[in-house]
Design goal:
Organism: Saccharopolyspora gloriosae
Number of domains: 2
CATH class of the largest domain: Mainly Alpha
Distance between the termini: 64 Å
EC number: 3.2.1.28
Largest sheet: 15 strands, antiparallel
Domain Trehalase-like N-terminal: 11-138
Number of strands: 28
Helix content: 25-40%
Enzyme class: hydrolase
Radius of gyration: 25 Å
Shape: globular
CATH architecture of the largest domain: Alpha/alpha barrel
Strand content: 15-25%
Structural class: alpha+beta
Keywords: Carbohydrate metabolism, Glycosidase, Hydrolase
Oligomer: single chain
Length: 624
Amino acid sequence: MSDQSAGPPGDIENYALLSDLRTAALVGLDGSVDWLCLPRFDSPSCFSRLLGDDRNGHWQIAPAEPVREVHRRYRDNSLVVETYFETDGGVFRLVDSMPPHEKNQHDPPCLVRMVEGVSGEVDVRMRWVVRFAYGDAVPWMRHVRQSEPELDEYILAIAGPHTVVLRGDLLPQRVPERRAHELVFTLREGQRRSWVMQWSSDHEEIPPRMDPVQETQDSEDFWRDWTDKINYTGPHAKSVYRSLATLKALTYAPTGGIVAAPTTSLPEAFGGNRNWDYRYCWLRDATLVLLALDNFGCSAEAAAWRRWLVRAVAGDPADVQIMYGVDGERHLLEWELDWLDGYQGAQPVRVGNGAYRQQQLDVYGEVMDALHLARERGLAENADTWALQRGMLKHLETIWQQPDKGLWEVRGPDRHFTHSRVMVWVAFDRAVRAAEEDGLPGPVQRWRELRDAVHAEVLEKGWNQELGAFTQYYGGTTVDAATLLIPSVGFLPGDDERVRSTIRVVERELRHGVLVDRYTTGDDTNEVDGLTGREGSFLACSFWLVDALALSGRRDEAVSMFDELIELANDVGLFAEEYDVHSGRFTGNFPQAFSHLALVNSSAVLYGGHTRDESSRRNGRDPR
């Protein structure tokens, strides 16, 4: 097999996101769709080049001649991507989209690709390599031509339960020695060629033909209509709009759940083993999701997320997990795909996430805070949802003093993480506020006593006077960027000297320019997370520092830092989980909801949105 047929994936920052609100695809600057799971975000992939090479599945449309320049953009605020290829012979535009079927969720997922000649003429090559089951299953391919009930021609790819259909103006031909289909044609100015790839749950029920031009227009219209309701006029509006659209794109429309990222095993450190599957819904994101969506006019999505949240955690409070599947699935068993080389050699490639079994006490605070905010935003409580929260609080009373894995889901020993204890305080504080502000029934005096006891404990055991900071865990001597959230959740005011001092120590120990690490990692095994190697700076932590600076009275520094962080986005406004300061590259899963959530909420802190800890807005009261 030639080197050309075994090419590696591009840099993480070279990808753009497509989504139909059930699954997502990543398309690179080279015109190659390198990642696509069908029919859901967490389904097995049929294009897996992202975690290996060309032979693991991809769909590339690009010039068959040397490229002088490539540039791309999203059409307005939509998720329709235009990539312009310039060669010596001419220029053509590649238009990619996935039609979102938010209302008719039973429509088969599909990927629409079109090329349009802009000037001159260009020889274009299309290579279509389908590999089901994360690149492990080579499908049986058939070229079908039928005349009844109407003329229809397509390529059918089948492997076990997996089926896709490719239709187009020109269909590629089989290249047996590569187990691929290829096509080379000349595209002249004013010409258009298009293709549609559709998924089917049954190889005997072929999806009907679609008009690619109309579907592309419908996609653009959908996103334009959706973004028109966003209410934000502050600085960096384009970035805020793109972040909100990305959060919408990571939403699983049938349930309202939002995945942390559409990818798995993109490494937090190149060549390392910090590779995790993020195609699931974390409870920790709940508060930030509600804030980000509701702050800027996306109230329907906030309500849908609240419904997903309540549904997911329903049941015995002792069984509450930190994450769930997009449908609320509980078992996310972790296993390794040993046939994939991993992104640029990063092993292992993991599917599932064993952290779903971990005890992380902070999630109780996140859920209580999210549902408290939902009440403040006008989402009515009912007897069932309040009973659920009371059950969670009763269980928390019995376990809050136990050590846990913390919000970073460490694979080392359980510890008394300071952030976890702060969020336990949040849980009881929001319960007290529910009783005092909403008149909801419950043992409010006991909740007050527990809230005050947790608060006193954190101030005593989480604070290190010699270091001058809240530490990562009780008795520790190192800091954690999660302590930057202390003023955001209302545990202490931003101008408290302990908060200000903690910010200074975090800056000294974890900050690199405008970037902030989660905690200190090194080449040896880390005693906290149990893993080896360094990782990139966590982008959400960088935005948390923006918030902390603003809340502590250092607003000018916060604005300057926010401006610089915005510039780290890729060419279409997307952020990964982390940023490697040494190579200047994105690391971790991409695009990362947590990064975009943090960006949107920093814009609210700086430019007039509602912050996480503020007075009630019920009954028309607005403290701004």
